[in-house]
From TrEMBL:
<keyword id="KW-0175">Coiled coil</keyword>
<keyword id="KW-0067">ATP-binding</keyword>
<keyword id="KW-0227">DNA damage</keyword>
<dbReference type="GO" id="GO:0005524">
    <property type="term" value="F:ATP binding"/>
</dbReference>
<keyword id="KW-0234">DNA repair</keyword>
<dbReference type="GO" id="GO:0006281">
    <property type="term" value="P:DNA repair"/>
</dbReference>
<dbReference type="InterPro" id="IPR003395">
    <property type="entry name" value="RecF/RecN/SMC_N"/>
</dbReference>
<protein>
    <recommendedName>
        <fullName>DNA repair protein RecN</fullName>
    </recommendedName>
</protein>
<dbReference type="GO" id="GO:0009432">
    <property type="term" value="P:SOS response"/>
</dbReference>
<feature type="coiled-coil region">
    <location>
        <begin position="262"/>
        <end position="289"/>
    </location>
</feature>
<keyword id="KW-0547">Nucleotide-binding</keyword>
<comment type="similarity">
    <text>Belongs to the RecN family.</text>
</comment>
<feature type="coiled-coil region">
    <location>
        <begin position="335"/>
        <end position="369"/>
    </location>
</feature>
<dbReference type="InterPro" id="IPR004604">
    <property type="entry name" value="DNA_recomb/repair_RecN"/>
</dbReference>
<comment type="function">
    <text>May be involved in recombinational repair of damaged DNA.</text>
</comment>
<dbReference type="GO" id="GO:0006310">
    <property type="term" value="P:DNA recombination"/>
</dbReference>
<feature type="coiled-coil region">
    <location>
        <begin position="189"/>
        <end position="229"/>
    </location>
</feature>
Amino acid sequence: MLIQLAIRDFAIVDTLDLEFQAGMTAITGETGAGKSILLGALGLCLGERADAGGVRHGADRADLSARFDIAEREEAKAWLAARELATDDCLLRRVVTASGRSKAWINGQPCTIADLRELGECLIDVHSQHAHQALLNEDTHRRLLDDAAGHHQAVAELGDLHRQWHALRRQYRERSENDEERQAKRQLLRYQVEELDQLDLQAEELESLEQEQETLAHLEESLLEAQFAADSCDHDENGALTLLSQATLRLSRVPGSDRGSLSEALTMLNDAQIQLEEAARELHHFVESNELDPQRLAWVDERLAEIHRVARKHHVMPEELDDLHRRLSGELEALDSGDDDLETLRTRLDDLRQQYRDDARKISETRQRTATAFAQQVQEQLAFLGMDKARFAVDVTPLETPQPHGLDRVSLQISANPGQPPRPLAKVASGGELSRVSLAIQVVAASHSTLATLVFDEVDVGISGATAEIVGQLLRRLGHDAQVMTVTHLPQVAAQAHQHLHIEKRSSDDETHTEMAQLDDAGRVRELARMLGGVKLSNRTLAHAREMLAASQSSAH
């Protein structure tokens, strides 16, 4: 329940502190006095859009706050608790600067405007004077029926399901439309991978082949040179070993003291002979172990040529072929598994469609059941408002195309004259009739509301006389179960209120400001007299107002 509203430097309000009570509160004042300022300030506290034009002229900023008693508002307490905000009280604050920027707080903690709006939906339900215009829109008809059915969560979940379904359907369609291109790419990749599979290039094979080619290409020359070197070392007549043996033998025969001087040279010749014998054995081994193999060389040349050909074909270096093979194989595997993904999408799409239809059918059944009860309740209110001959109906018909809200078209219909079938409101209701139908619907809608505070902003426009008194009785009746605030120009409505707030605009030479105060009984009589039509309050008008107030308050108990 709204218990306090504080307004600073907003519109033509300098400072205004208001306290509200339970029951029905009437808010009245002359046209232009500032009744809309009160609702505008409250709307900003509830997250409505702000602009610099709302700041009082000459002020730096407008500061607005609304305090609510949420002792019995479990939804609001749960919302605050989920965000680790204090739940004993609920204070919404909004500051709008002269530059148009705004800030918001909940229980002293900074918050977003969306947070204000979301929490506000747990606290207040506003019915405006333009509601009858909205009744010409069938979206409003469906929303009203869903409010009465109380399945907002189910409808919201259905909307999410509908969005998932359509997003997945777009994805599946795009994948399917690209299937031909995917098949062509798969065919090319498969050919490329098979070619690289056949090449079967092993790790480090390229380097090994290049080294082998180098060896085989020069083997004949190497063998000839090695054989010559081996022959040069042998014990043949002119071989190095023969000559070296002769030299060693001759030195070993040197007599006397000269032999000692030549001993070191003799040792070196012996060592050289040993080294030369080893070299000869290595050379002979090389010649004997290597054999010319033209066929092997030809195969190596062909293998290298094939490797280079495939590399050129794929525009890579030969040493990059192994990485290319792995990459293309991965792409082909991904495309092959894409067929499974497409089938998975198809299955998921079918599941979502079936789930949507099952949930939509349940919502349709609830709407059908609620439509009868809702129409009966509005019918009763219309009779109370003097339209006892009218027949009200809620038509729920299936849609051909699934929508986020379901498979139903909801149309509020009325027959104002006996014998005529109900037709859509926009086609049959006159302005005055539409105002009364709108009020009847709003009263029924409010009776289904679980919110503690209901605001009616001049919903009685176009109504007068005895019907106006009945409207007041309806609003007072709602005030027994909820806090009802109604902005009205009708004394018959204001007289029914439990409390009466009066708004007055005062002007001086250089300033205009708005004041608001709760009226006592004497003040209520004077205000009702003014509303009855007197600029000058005569004794007769005052007596009429006093009688109206007394009758309304006594009959309402």
